[in-house]
Design a protein that fits this description.
Strand order of the largest sheet: 2-1-3-13-6
Distance between the termini: 40 Å
CATH topology of the largest domain: D-Maltodextrin-Binding Protein, domain 2
Number of domains: 2
Largest sheet: 5 strands, mixed
Number of strands: 16
Number of helices: 19
Oligomer: single chain
Radius of gyration: 25 Å
CATH superfamily of the largest domain: Periplasmic binding protein-like II
């Protein structure tokens, strides 16, 4: 190692010790507690609304069942975002790590992590997970190795986090049907904007409230470009390369910024602005302003349509405002038939995540650490990680593989004192498990149900990038560098077209397409095509 490298490592080590604070290093110190039980140190990256791990009754049961002494180290999302790279640079990694490292971290730092795929004989619950839900095994396999273990929530979460919501109360008052085409949508938006459907005597209705355009990518959560699905191009905006414009059609990768359908969607949004159906400032309106428009004063609705998770985009579940909204299939674009209209394919990315359990390459007590992992991935502990302990009234076992989330847990959620890891669990819920009382699951499943036919209108392998397709580290760097320049150019142009028009100008559109190529959009497509072909062969 060069002097510069030695110096850098020394600086990194000092930095990580200062930054991590209470997060102890795995090396050094006793390997057993006062009772001679092996110590297992577990880092958990937690949400701010979750109670301390020591206050969760299931963690005490876990410690007894593993016959070990667990030392929990807790860190918030924001803090971990600042600490992770320093921890990796200094090699300071806890025995086990929940929702802290992803497969790319492992592939870029292979000496830091245990290859858990080599330990599956000690992890029968993980083997059962992979057998029942094989997509997750592919999801975390990188260069033939499984280093980071995934998670799986209940089957009810196999639903996109993206939905088109409409004010059904307004439709009923105006005697209008749910729109199924853009023409019908135009009729509905015009009525929403001009016929005072909220009855307050003011011209304060927003027929459609699009979310602001991201400045660093072309798609995102509740992106206005969910409307691409109206044209037959599938998005998956929960995660993945769709946020870069990448799409698939019969196994061929493209970028929808280069399509006539993209132009069609831009022109449709500008039409909304020009006719007063969408706010003139929506392209740059902050999230706070977008949300404030959706939720109004909590009583009188002012928004007719918006993209969101479910009714909670407009207020708390069961509130007077939220109850006015339903989710609907996306209307078909001009010239597109219903059987060619599709919907955002983010369902797998909503149920599964690929960064929920990592083990240090040098755990304090490897055998004990593996016992903990296997227990966490059992039904007994997976369900309690998700919903709270069965021993203190947060979760009831109602039968074989059946459970009920109690009112006590719901009140804890509402009070932001959640006695569980919820979606941060290092575990999996089998398809044979049924759960009652999960408000989030029930609502998102209900919001997703209207899209059943639109999901059936395309191949989820040939017309949508599967969640398990990933670029190599070097290709990731290439694409990221290309995208920085690409979106620095493209987003301002698209933003202007959306708000002020101009996409209909053939010369301007041609110039835009030419410039996309200059910013290496085709290289990105080629790299994703190669990754897709390799992953699905």
């Amino acid at each position: 190692m060069t002097r510069r490298g030695v110096a850098y490592k020394a600086i990194a080590s000092l930095a990580v010790m200062a930054m991590l604070g209470s997060i102890a290093a795995c090396g050094g110190g006793s390997t057993t507690d006062a009772n001679g039980k092996p110590i297992v140190k577990i880092l958990v990256v937690k949400n701010s609304n979750q109670t301390p791990m020591a206050n969760m009754a299931w963690t005490k049961q876990l410690q007894a069942d593993c016959n070990c002494s667990i030392q929990w180290h807790e860190v918030s999302d924001n803090a971990w975002g600042q600490q992770k790279n320093a921890a990796l640079a200094a090699g300071e990694i806890d025995d086990l790590n929940i929702r802290a490292f992803n497969p790319d971290d492992a592939s870029q730092n292979p000496s830091a992590f245990e290859v858990l795929g080599d330990d599956l004989n000690s992890l029968p619950n993980v083997k059962a997970f992979f057998k029942e839900q094989p997509i997750v095994r592919k999801f975390v396999t990188v260069n033939g190795k499984i280093t980071i273990l995934p998670s799986s929530r209940t089957k009810g979460f196999l639903a996109s986090g993206q939905h088109l919501m409409i004010n059904k109360t307004w439709l009923d008052k105006l005697g209008l049907a749910v729109p199924t085409t853009w023409d019908q949508m135009r009729t509905v938006m015009n009525a929403f904007a001009t016929k005072d459907p909220n009855g307050d005597g003011k011209a304060d209705e927003i027929a459609f409230n699009p979310r602001e355009l991201s400045t660093s990518k072309i798609g995102d959560w509740w992106s206005p470009f969910l409307m691409m699905n109206s044209t037959g191009i599938v998005t998956h905006f929960n995660s993945g390369p769709s946020q870069q414009g990448i799409y698939l059609k019969n196994g061929v990768v493209g970028n929808w910024m280069q399509t006539s359908q993209f132009r069609q969607v831009i022109e449709f949004y500008h039409e909304m602005v020009s006719k007063g159906w969408a706010p003139s400032d929506w392209v740059t309106a902050s999230d706070d302003k977008y949300n404030a428009r959706n939720q109004s004063d909590g009583k009188t609705a002012t928004v007719g349509m918006a993209f969101g998770w479910d009714q909670s985009a407009f207020g708390s579940y069961g509130s007077k405002l939220a109850d006015q909204y339903i989710s609907i299939p996306v209307p078909s674009a001009d010239g597109v038939s219903a059987d060619k209209t599709v919907w955002d394919g983010s369902r797998e990315a909503n149920r599964y995540e690929d960064y929920h359990m990592a083990m240090s390459a040098h755990p304090t007590n490897k055998a004990a650490a593996l016992r903990v992992i296997n227990l966490l991935y059992s039904e007994k502990y997976s369900i309690q990680q998700l919903y709270g302990s069965t021993s203190d009234g947060y979760l009831q076992k109602t039968g074989d593989h059946s459970y009920k989330v109690t009112e006590k847990f719901q009140k804890a959620q509402d009070a932001a004192k959640v006695p569980a890891l919820e979606d941060r669990l290092a575990g999996w819920i089998s398809d044979k498990v049924t759960v009652q009382g999960d408000r989030g699951m029930d609502h998102v499943a209900a919001a997703d149900a209207p899209y059943k036919q639109q999901y059936a209108n395309y191949s989820h392998t040939k017309d949508m990038m599967p969640i398990y397709v990933r670029l190599s580290p070097s290709d990731q760097t290439t694409v990221a560098n290309n995208n920085t320049a690409l979106f620095n150019y493209a987003i301002p142009v698209v933003s202007k077209w959306l708000s002020q028009g101009g996409a209909q100008d053939d010369s301007a559109w041609s110039e835009f397409q030419s410039n996309l190529k200059k910013y290496k959009i085709d290289q990105n497509t080629q790299l994703w095509q190669a990754a897709y072909t390799k992953a699905v062969k």
